[in-house]
What we know:
Layout: H1 2-20, E1 56-60, H2 67-74, E2 81-87, H3 88-91, H4 101-112, E3 116-122, E4 139-141, E5 147-149, H5 154-171, E6 177-181, H6 203-220, E7 225-229, H7 240-248, E8 255-262, H8 272-281, E9 288-291, H9 299-308, E10 313-317, H10 318-323, H11 325-329
Helix pairs in contact: 1-6, 1-7, 5-6, 7-8
Amino acid sequence: MTFCRTILASLTLASAVLAGGCGGGGAAAPAPPAAPVTSTPVISTPAPSAAAKPSGFFAMTGFNTTTAEKTEMLKLAYVNGMTSYVSWRDIEPAKGQFNFSKIDSDIALARSFGKKLTIGVFTGKDAIPDWVAAEGVKTWVSGQGKTLIYPTDMTFVSLWAARVRELGVRYGADGTVVQVTMCGAAGTLCGPRYPELPPGVVYADLLSAWSQVIAAYQTAFPNTYKNLEVHLSADGYGASLPVDLMAAIPKDAYIGPFAEFLSDVAPTDGSPAGAAFLTAAKGRAWCGFQMVSPLGDKVADAVRRGRSFGCNYFEIYVSDLRQQGAALAALVN
């Protein structure tokens, strides 16, 4: 309960804190000024007066998914939209030099079919720009040999908050962008999932760092749904981190839990991950899942399982959307 009160206070006050920089145990590191966007002009459609809830089947596109494949998916009547995930390295290869062309083109494509988009900028493995080292961002190397942001590094929090502001300026009022995936000092690709942790990480500091990242997203995208990954972590934390973070987020915020492990047999409400997801989703207006892998003729059963958890948003592999159309179309509400 003390943790929750601490993080709730941090969420409430984070806009002011982040504007002046974040620090721990020393002088606060000033947040860099937002750099001008150097890619194509902002393209947007009027945002609805209230946040549009992301729902239905979204094509899970990858870095190498072609425009032709995306077009094929968006033409399907039972597909509501697609994902547009990029890396921090892709959108800002040099400090202050932004390239949002991939997200912009995905927005234009989805809009042309009257469909929606979930966007996310990954900050984990293979996604970190080379220039952040010169800014003093602390990194570590995982057992798999991947360079990652140190989970409680406050220099990163300040830098990333400024980038989230850029994203909000560009896409916060875009009616095609129906959801934003919240990323931070990830242990894998994006969210608060840590298969391993470096030495010296203190749980309270981890909660504080992530709460400030969440607050930055909430400030940048107050009227857009956002998701936070729920998964297990190492060092005995289990799913405590996302559960504690979600517990501190006001119920009326457009934020819900999201998990990448849905199949026809998992999760179960009695498993640690399933129980954590249910706890995180309690009282929330939205929750969602990503399929754990291509599931073939089991994908419809996976959707039913996800709905049993109260969720109606599903990121599905292109191959399953293509090959299991009849079964998925039958599940459209």
